[in-house]
């Protein structure tokens, strides 16, 4: 329009004269006309000349040189670099002090123990020692119980693998040259010669004696087992068939060494088969469904019998088994054991089934062909091993993919093993652990799990599996999470931890000197957590710095090949070979059901009388496909009965031309396994409140039905009267016994047994009845009561409704429940007592909670494709079930379709190379005195072709990013010109997880803002102002829009003593952060510009469309004044995308978001890797005119004011289960700042007092001689009674005093509510 007005054009042909030669699609433009003269009269537009765009200001980098980084950064050419080391911002503390990162973050205890050179701390008092011992005893007891439930040793001793110390073994003798020659000659012998050499060697006298002893012992064991079985048979003669079946089932469930002896085990199953058939003949029923159920049981027993290791069986037993097969309609060839026959008979006479080669009971025969019958009813029993074969390395027959895993571990290779839940990944971790334990006494394996619950579970399994008798002070196990320490990190060979803690250990310079080099393996379980938005970067940092091969395990990784390619490149950079093993098949199928909604509410009387509503509809996998489905999910599978129903449907519609797919033609062999019921079940609801509501409703309905039955049932009243009469008589009997005992004067005289074995003695009318409870049989009544008593006690204070639910076999599992409660119900669930577990996603991530059914109760935005697979995978665990059930309850059918057909999303994007991470790398180098591990780690990071599994940032841009991040750290006063951490490094580094809040805090300290706050005349105002600032930086939680409406807040403030909405930051703080943010923007804009200018040729033309990523369509080439005008006035940016430049934008960026979102193609910037201050500025008084989208929650400030837990939940909207974690997180942040300030003030004082060399001397502290076992565990906050160090300025000390006041006040209130 500007051009038309200036040139007074009247037609489009005047604008583009060459339009005649363009495409037909543009010919319509030739008819356009303009009234240029009239427009020129109406609008006065000055002539537009090509004005050159002013280039962005040249940014001058500060001087920097470090011999480890210099080699890599030599490829970064930034021309405007200062050479003066003095050109650096001055510190408010007056000097730059080198940081010393040798203390714990939350206290001043040395990281290293005393025996490795660490400082001695104060001795424990006797009361503290007793407290420590009690705490350790409780932890040991919990670990023992959990280990017993995980390893199946409930009520028995833990069966541990005992490993001998490596130091006790004789070192291997190396072969001499002559011995090697003889070995080579032996290897080259012919096959005939080797066979001659391998003739059996005659046994010595000692060997013959041992063989005779073993033979006699075997005969004795066989005789004892046979006599035991004959005695049991005789005892069961007078029992009913139902009672005998229960006894047999008990023998099989609780096998003794006699019941497992092969010949006895064979007869037990043979007798079981006899009882089932006898019961069937007594109650013949031609119903097809009952026939199928009983045939399933019979075939399961035949399968068990065939697998027994019996060398021979009696001929009469062989005939009985053949008659069974004939009666049910199956061939005997594949069902009977292929062993020799003996003339012996067995201990009972079996039922007669066949006469003259004909069945005496025709109703037992199946109605279908054996092949079709197996497809329909026996699919889960088919042999599903994946090329299994015996392997001496493990106690089971591993599949082929599992043997490949074993080979990779044995060859010390890096490994990524992906397999569905139930495929059998668990053994991988324990095999690697055992290998490390057997190889040495000081090698370390680190197991990393994403959650503390999984950490505790694996720790208990390790405790229950392994035992090693060390000659020194070494131990097997240590557990480290942020709030839990079990064992000695330096002395343990297996460390179980979370990724954040391992990241701290790997980046610790103290650990690099004596611990990191001993790490032989790192196992990253649930490695798909690397794609999480929060915490994913830590996983990447661990992989980037790992000093040893890693083992990655997961069941749910989207785009696994892409992720593996990056992982392999990282491992190869560390000189480790890498193996990728992907096993996509589940061991057990998942059968899916949809619960149909109904407006009618069903009545409930009892479990035994409950009628099936027939609203549970089976979902055939192919029925879930819609018209829009253009492909099948890779994890979709059909059961055998699904295939059969598909075949029948195709045949019924004449869609199959021949009989090649007929089951009888296609299948040549059949397999048999074992079938189980549908409980226990896990009901998943991703809302904690809904979980508890469901549990309460379920318990209330069971209790109401039980009360109604007790009031109306006559037998119950008779039973109560009988119990009451027995109790009265028992009191009389007890009084009589006591009288008789008093009359006895002879202490050695025999006494009557006063114990009573009558059922009335243990009867409790308050116990839930079996018909109104889902509870299974507890392993021990006494143990169950002890667990319930502990949960009800003052330590855990479990709700009354939760205890009532527990007694009925129902439990609720979510993160808001106490750790003690969660561990207890997990144990009871594994033991089979709890059979209905209602859970959020806390049980979806690797927790050993084997269920037969997973139920999705209601929809949720958190029910993603990944969460669906993790929750569904809890059903049908290998070793427990052959079939898993998945039920959808309360979800729309369309939502079920999307879930089942969904694909796993690719792992999320996280960028590990943050400014804090680079700062910690420098600390690792400096603090470890440039240890080999530290140098190699940094060099490998610099040389990687791709720094992240999702980032396309190549090596050249990584180096630019590193150089400008170093520039930021230099200007922030955290690094000196040689790359040595200085001053406030401790705060910035230890609060790495809060970035960019840690850098904002450092800047406000260095700029003097915090000194001004703390220097106010009123300490109360200083305390309040500083607390508000800390809440903005480290306690950020947004309030939903509808909750932050003024009328809602006003109403709540009238009821509760909470502000609810956090007051904005003062304008002076906002201005200071805004100025800092501008410097950051200029710095990283220069980064983009310098990289684009230096690599212009490799970046190429920016002609890729930003959304579709397709190439730009060729433009129409025409000559005209208008095109000339555009060419003269166009903006040609260097770093900005040309598509953004069409809006008049050049290389002057207005914000960090603007920079990241509009940078040109080929430059990959990550907004969270740039320490932007914009989020803090938006919530300051500077932004009053532009209200932020979401207000900040004042929960930290409010808790500091009133200390009321309930108010935080009711007024501030913090979920009760989250309150403790959020308050603890803030408390740990305060302790970190407090400790860092103490260390800084000490180092500043030492620098000003040259004659004092020791901090203890400076603070007038005495280092006493003490026993290592009696030192404090570091629970104290900083230095107890910390006094003002000499030469400390009053302003600096005032800052510390206010921080100390806030830390102690908050800590006191925090501990009071959870005391």
Automatic annotation (TrEMBL):
SMART domains in alphabetical order: DEXDc (SM00487), HELICc (SM00490)
Record field: compositional bias (Acidic residues): 1262-1279
Occurrences of domain Helicase C-terminal (ranges): 776-919
Superkingdom per UniProt: Eukaryota
Residue ranges of domain Helicase ATP-binding in the record: 406-567
Gene3D superfamilies (alphabetical): P-loop containing nucleotide triphosphate hydrolases
GO MF terms held by the record: ATP binding; helicase activity; hydrolase activity; nucleic acid binding
Location of the region described as Disordered in the Swiss-Prot/TrEMBL record: 123-145, 162-200, 731-760, 1262-1289
Hydrolase found in the keyword field: yes
Ranges of compositional bias, category Basic and acidic residues: 177-198, 731-755
Chaperone in keyword set: no
GO cellular component, one term: cytoplasm
InterPro entries: DEAD/DEAH_box_helicase_dom (IPR011545), Helicase_ATP-bd (IPR014001), Helicase_C-like (IPR001650), P-loop_NTPase (IPR027417), SKI2_subfamily_helicases (IPR052431), WHD_DDX60 (IPR059032)
UniProtKB keywords: ATP-binding, Helicase, Hydrolase, Nucleotide-binding
Record-linked PANTHER family: DEAD/H RNA HELICASE, PUTATIVE-RELATED, DEAD_H RNA HELICASE, PUTATIVE-RELATED
Protein known as: P-loop containing nucleoside triphosphate hydrolase protein
Taxonomic source organism: Lentinula guzmanii
């Amino acid at each position: 329009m500007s051009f038309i007005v200036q040139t007074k054009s009247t037609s489009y042909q005047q604008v583009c004269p060459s339009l005649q030669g363009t495409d037909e699609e543009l010919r319509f433009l030739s008819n356009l006309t303009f009234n240029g003269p009239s427009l020129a009269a109406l609008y006065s537009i000055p002539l537009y000349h090509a004005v050159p765009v002013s280039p962005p200001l040249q940014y001058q980098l500060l001087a920097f040189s470090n011999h480890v980084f210099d080699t890599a950064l030599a490829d970064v050419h930034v021309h405007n670099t200062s050479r003066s080391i003095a050109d650096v911002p001055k510190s408010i503390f007056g000097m730059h002090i080198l940081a010393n990162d040798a203390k714990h973050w939350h206290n001043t205890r040395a990281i290293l123990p005393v025996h490795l050179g660490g400082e001695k701390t104060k001795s424990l008092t006797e009361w503290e020692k007793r407290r420590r011992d009690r705490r350790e005893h409780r932890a040991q007891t919990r670990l023992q119980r959990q280990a017993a439930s995980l390893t199946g040793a409930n009520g028995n001793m833990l069966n541990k693998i005992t490993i001998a110390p490596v130091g006790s073994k004789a070192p291997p003798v190396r072969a001499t040259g002559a011995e090697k020659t003889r070995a080579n000659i032996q290897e080259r012998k012919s096959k005939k010669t080797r066979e001659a050499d391998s003739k059996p060697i005659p046994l010595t006298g000692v060997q013959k004696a041992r063989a005779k002893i073993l033979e006699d012992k075997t005969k004795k064991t066989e005789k004892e087992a046979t006599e035991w079985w004959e005695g049991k048979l005789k005892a069961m003669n007078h029992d009913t068939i139902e009672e005998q079946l229960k006894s047999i089932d008990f023998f099989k469930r609780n096998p003794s060494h006699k019941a497992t002896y092969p010949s006895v085990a064979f007869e037990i199953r043979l007798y079981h088969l006899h009882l089932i058939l006898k019961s069937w003949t007594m109650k013949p029923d031609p119903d097809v469904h009952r026939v199928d159920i009983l045939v399933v049981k019979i075939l399961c027993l035949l399968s068990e019998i065939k697998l027994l290791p019996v060398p021979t069986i009696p001929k009469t037993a062989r005939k009985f088994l053949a008659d069974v097969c004939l009666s049910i309609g199956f061939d005997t060839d594949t069902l009977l054991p292929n062993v020799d026959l003996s003339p012996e008979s067995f201990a009972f006479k079996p039922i007669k089934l066949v006469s003259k080669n004909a069945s005496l009971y025709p109703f037992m025969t199946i109605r279908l062909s054996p092949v079709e019958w197996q497809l329909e009813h026996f699919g889960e029993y088919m042999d599903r091993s994946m090329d299994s074969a015996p392997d001496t390395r493990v106690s089971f027959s591993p599949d082929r993919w599992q043997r490949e895993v074993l080979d990779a571990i044995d060859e010390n290779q890096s490994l990524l093993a992906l397999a569905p839940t139930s495929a059998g990944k668990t053994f991988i971790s324990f095999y690697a652990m055992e290998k490390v334990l057997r190889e040495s006494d000081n090698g370390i394996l680190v197991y990393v799990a994403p959650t503390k619950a999984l950490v505790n579970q694996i720790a208990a399994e390790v405790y229950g599996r392994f035992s090693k008798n060390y000659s020194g002070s070494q131990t097997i196990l240590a557990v480290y999470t942020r709030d839990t320490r079990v064992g000695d990190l330096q002395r343990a060979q297996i460390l179980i931890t979370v990724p954040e803690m391992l990241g701290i250990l790997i980046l610790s310079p103290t650990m690099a000197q004596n611990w990191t080099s001993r790490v032989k393996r790192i196992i990253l379980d649930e490695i798909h957590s690397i794609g999480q938005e929060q915490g994913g970067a830590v996983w990447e940092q661990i992989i980037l710095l790992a000093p040893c091969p890693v083992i990655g395990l997961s069941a749910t990784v989207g785009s696994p090949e892409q992720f593996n390619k990056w992982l392999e490149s990282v491992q190869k950079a560390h000189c480790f070979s890498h193996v990728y093993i992907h096993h996509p098949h589940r061991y057990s199928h998942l059968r899916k059901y949809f619960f149909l909604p109904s407006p009618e509410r069903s009545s409930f009387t009892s479990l035994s009388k409950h009628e099936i509503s027939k609203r549970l509809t089976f979902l055939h996998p192919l029925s879930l496909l819609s018209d829009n489905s253009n492909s099948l999910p890779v994890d979709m599978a059909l059961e055998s009965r699904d295939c059969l129903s598909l075949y029948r449907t195709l045949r019924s519609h004449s869609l199959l031309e021949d009989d090649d797919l007929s089951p009888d033609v296609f299948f040549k062999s059949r397999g048999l396994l074992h079938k189980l019921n549908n409980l226990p079940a896990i009901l998943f609801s991703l809302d904690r409140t809904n979980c508890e509501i469901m549990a309460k409703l379920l318990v209330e309905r069971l209790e109401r039905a039980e009360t109604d039955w007790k009031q109306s049932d006559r037998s119950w009243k008779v039973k109560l009267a009988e119990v009451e009469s027995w109790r009265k008589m028992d009191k009389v009997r007890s009084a009589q016994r006591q009288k008789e005992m008093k009359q006895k004067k002879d202490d050695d005289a025999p006494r009557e047994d006063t114990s009573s074995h009558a059922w009335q003695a243990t009867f409790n009318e308050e116990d839930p009845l079996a018909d109104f409870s889902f509870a299974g049989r507890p392993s021990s009544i006494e143990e169950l009561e002890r667990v319930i008593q502990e949960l009800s006690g003052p330590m855990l204070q479990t709700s009354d409704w939760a205890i009532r639910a527990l007694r009925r076999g129902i439990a609720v599992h979510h993160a808001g429940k106490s750790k003690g409660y969660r561990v207890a119900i997990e144990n009871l669930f594994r033991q089979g007592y709890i059979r209905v577990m209602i859970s959020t996603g806390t049980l979806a991530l690797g927790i050993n909670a084997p269920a037969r059914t997973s139920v999705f109760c209601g929809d949720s935005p958190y029910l993603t494709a990944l969460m669906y697979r993790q929750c569904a995978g809890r059903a049908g665990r290998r070793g427990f079930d052959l079939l898993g059930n998945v039920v959808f309850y309360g979800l729309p059918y369309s939502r079920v379709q999307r879930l089942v057909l969904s694909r796993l999303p690719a792992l999320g994007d996280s960028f590990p190379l943050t400014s804090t991470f680079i700062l910690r790398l420098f600390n690792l180098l400096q603090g470890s005195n440039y240890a080999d591990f530290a140098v190699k780690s940094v060099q490998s990071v610099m040389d990687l072709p791709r720094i992240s599994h999702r980032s396309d940032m190549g090596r050249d841009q990584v180096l630019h990013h590193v150089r400008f991040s170093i520039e930021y750290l230099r200007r922030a006063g955290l690094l000196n010109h040689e790359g040595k951490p200085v001053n406030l490094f401790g705060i910035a580094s230890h609060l790495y997880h809060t970035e960019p809040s840690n850098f904002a805090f450092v800047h406000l300290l260095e700029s003097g803002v915090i000194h001004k706050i703390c220097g106010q005349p009123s300490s109360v105002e200083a305390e309040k102002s500083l607390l508000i600032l800390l809440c903005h930086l480290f306690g950020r939680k947004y309030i939903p829009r509808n909750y932050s409406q003024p009328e809602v807040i006003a109403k709540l403030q009238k009821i509760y003593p909470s502000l609810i909405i956090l007051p904005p930051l003062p304008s002076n703080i906002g201005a200071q952060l805004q100025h800092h943010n501008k410097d950051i923007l200029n710095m990283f804009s220069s980064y983009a510009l310098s990289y684009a200018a230096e690599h212009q040729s490799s970046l190429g033309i920016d002609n890729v469309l930003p959304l579709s990523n397709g190439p730009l369509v060729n433009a129409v080439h025409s000559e005209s004044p208008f095109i000339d005008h555009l060419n003269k006035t166009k903006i040609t940016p260097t770093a900005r995308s040309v598509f953004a430049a069409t809006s008049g934008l050049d290389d002057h960026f207005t914000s960090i978001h603007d920079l990241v979102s509009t940078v040109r193609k080929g430059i990959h910037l990550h907004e969270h890797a740039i320490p932007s201050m914009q989020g803090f500025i938006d919530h300051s008084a500077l932004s009053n005119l532009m209200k932020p989208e979401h207000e900040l929650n004042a929960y930290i400030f409010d808790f500091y004011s009133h200390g009321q837990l309930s108010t935080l939940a009711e007024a501030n909207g913090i979920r009760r289960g989250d309150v403790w974690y959020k308050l603890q997180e803030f408390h740990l942040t305060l302790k970190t700042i407090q400790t860092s300030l103490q260390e800084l003030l000490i180092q500043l004082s030492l620098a000003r007092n040259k004659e004092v060399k020791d901090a203890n001397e400076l603070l007038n502290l005495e280092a006493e001689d003490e026993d290592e076992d009696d030192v404090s565990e570091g629970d104290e906050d900083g230095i107890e009674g910390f006094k003002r160090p000499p030469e400390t300025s009053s302003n600096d000390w005032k800052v510390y005093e206010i921080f100390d006041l806030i830390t102690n006040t908050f800590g006191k209130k925090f501990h009071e509510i959870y005391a």
